[in-house]
Amino acid sequence: AQKITQTQPGMFVQEKEAVTLDCTYDTSDPSYGLFWYKQPSSGEMIFLIYQGSYDQQNATEGRYSLNFQKARKSANLVISASQLGDSAMYFCAMREDPNAGGTSYGKLTFGQGTILTVHP
Amino acid sequence: NAGVMQNPRHLVRRRGQEARLRCSPMKGHSHVYWYRQLPEEGLKFMVYLQKENIIDESGMPKERFSAEFPKEGPSILRIQQVVRGDSAAYFCASSRGYSYEQYFGPGTRLTVT
Fold first, then answer.
1. How far is Cα A111 from Cα A91, in angstroms, rounded to an integer?
2. A52 and chain B: CB distance < 8 Å anywhere?
3. Confidence band (pLDDT; 50, 70, 90) for A101?
C-alpha cells in the first residue's frame, strides 16, 4: 500500500522568500509518480508539478521545484520568491506507475496537506 | 476548451435524503475518478470508471454509495440515505486513460443537516 506523509500542518513565509514543504512517501512499487497540488480557499485542485521515480533530474515548473531524494523517499516542494497568492493548502500525492502491470489504475494517494500562509 | 465540470457546486441535504453529484469530463476524456475530501483531510480515492464500466471501486463505502458513467451524459455519484458523516467535498477528475494526467473539477460541497 502507498502512504504519503506531510508533517507540517502549517507553514509561514515572508513574501519574496523561498519556502520548502515536506513530503515523504512509502511504497513497495518500483515505479511511481509524485505530484503536488495547490488548493486555494476557493476549493479547486490545481496541479503544480510532477516527478517520475525514474526521472534523473528534479522537476521544475516556474517558481516551483521538486527536491526529489529517492533513497530518503522524500519529494519536497520548493516555492521560490513567495507571493501573497501562494497562500493555500498544498497536497503531495503519488500513484503507482499505471504501466507497471499493477491494479492501481492510476489512482492518486494524497497526504494530509500543509497550509501555507505568505505574509506581506 | 472547457475543463471538468461538476454540479451542483454546493448541495444541502437532510439526513435520509439522496444526493446526486454530477461530473462532466473534459472533451476527449473517457476515464473518471471520484475522490472525497473530509474536513481538514486530504483527498481519498473512491472509484474509477470508464464509459459504462466500473473499473475500481475499492475506495467506495460498501453501502449507500454508487457510481455510474453512462455511454451518454455525465458520471453520477449517488449517495442514498445521507448521514452527517457524508458531509465533505467530492471531487471528480478526468483523464484520457489511467496512465495520463488527471484534471480535477471544482468539487461539490455536500452538507448534510
1. 6
2. no
3. low
